[in-house]
């Protein structure tokens, strides 16, 4: 009798994992499309005013950007529901499939060329995702939000959360103003570190909603609302810095680095908080890790073959440094003006034919 109960329970857990996997796949499709639409919107907004990468918010008035946001919202809702049924170790790595969607669409819409070797990258992503689905752990849903709160307040996870917040503040307050425009790790790092906390809090809110729908009301627990507030704050931060990353750097560079960092940190956070790998055999854990590494290799191969973005990294009328050397050609002779301390930062680049070095 106990064997029958265990078999039925295992079947229910497998069905839950399957629902989560299908929702994650649908989420990847919508999010992949949203990357392209938002990128188009950011380009239009940047052509009309200050770009998001240099602190501009003109994209908020661009309808195409909002279309991308709505598409992304649909994908995130599907992803949110997926976390109700399946562990983060399964759902998060499947986000790599959104990279395949964005790579293919970018080839046709953004003229970011995808070469034949990129098809190999797509195949590796699909192969790795299949391995992850087949060997994903079967997670038991907590019976109350209080149980999730107890998991979140473990010393090990509190230590991880404190480190994540400290690193994010350092990147936002110190590194972003200084290196954000030249080092992609700054913006993407903020998105990834904060994103790992976002997934944990969203999973908690999703489970609370699922239990409430099943008749076990979780709205009366203050922990539910704390998780909801944390989720909202983290999502806003992610969106701001993801827009900066997309507007400043090529999609071909942003996507694989963001995927690798975000997925790694999310799996780590989930393993610490929810003990995803507890009770799994070593072979299953090894298979999941190999699947993730295969997907990671696929993203690297996929994007290493795409051409770099040709967009300008600064506004046309940008103040120049106080000291410059410039060359002007006239009547066949080239004259050189050495460093001039009298020039101020208000000196504007108007004549594009001059050569400044």
TrEMBL record:
GO molecular function: magnesium ion transmembrane transporter activity
Membrane-crossing residue ranges in chain numbering: 20-37, 57-74, 80-110, 117-137, 157-175, 184-209, 221-241, 253-273, 285-302
Mode of membrane association: Multi-pass membrane protein
Signal sequence segment: none
Example of a GO cellular component annotation carried by this entry: plasma membrane
Family annotation (Pfam families): Mg_trans_NIPA
Localisation: Cell membrane; Early endosome; Membrane
Biological role: Acts as a Mg(2+) transporter. Can also transport other divalent cations such as Fe(2+), Sr(2+), Ba(2+), Mn(2+) and Co(2+) but to a much less extent than Mg(2+).
Stated family: Belongs to the NIPA (TC 2.A.7) family.
Subunit-structure text: Homodimer.
Full protein name: Probable magnesium transporter
